[in-house]
Design brief:
- The chain is mainly β.
- It is built from no helices and eleven strands.
- Strand 7 and strand 8 form a beta hairpin.
């Protein structure tokens, strides 16, 4: 059974940092692309990053480029999203998802976690 479980979401002040974790079970990170997505209330789900299993490349949305960093820890089957310089525009439910294929297409991801809530407020 495939499971993706996110954790680490909390309330943080503007300019602060936060690290989210996505623990994956039932699938191999070597063969699956792992994407982070976020959805704010009243808005569509937005792709934040995509870690491609094949060549190890990572892509970021322009809105987070330079502030967010994705990393993988294979021994723990975990993917992290390190977020820095958090802005009032960043609050959302952040979810990780896995896909076998090309990239991390939002509507074609194969498996999703339930998400973790990030709030940014002073």
């Amino acid at each position: 059974q495939v499971q993706l479980v996110e954790s680490g979401g909390t309330l943080v002040q503007p300019g602060g940092s936060l690290r989210l974790s996505c623990v994956v079970s039932g699938l191999n990170l070597y063969h699956n692309n792992l994407g982070w997505f976020r959805q704010a209330p009243g808005k569509e789900r937005e792709g934040v990053s995509c870690f491609s299993a094949g060549d190890g490349t990572i892509e970021y949305a322009d809105s987070v480029k330079g502030r967010f960093t994705v990393s993988r820890e294979f021994a723990k089957n975990t993917v992290y999203l390190q977020m820095t310089s958090l802005k009032p525009a960043d609050p959302a439910v952040y979810s990780c998802a896995a896909h076998i294929g090309l990239g991390c297409p939002t509507n074609l991801m194969d498996h999703w976690g339930k998400g973790t809530l990030v709030n940014v407020s002073s």
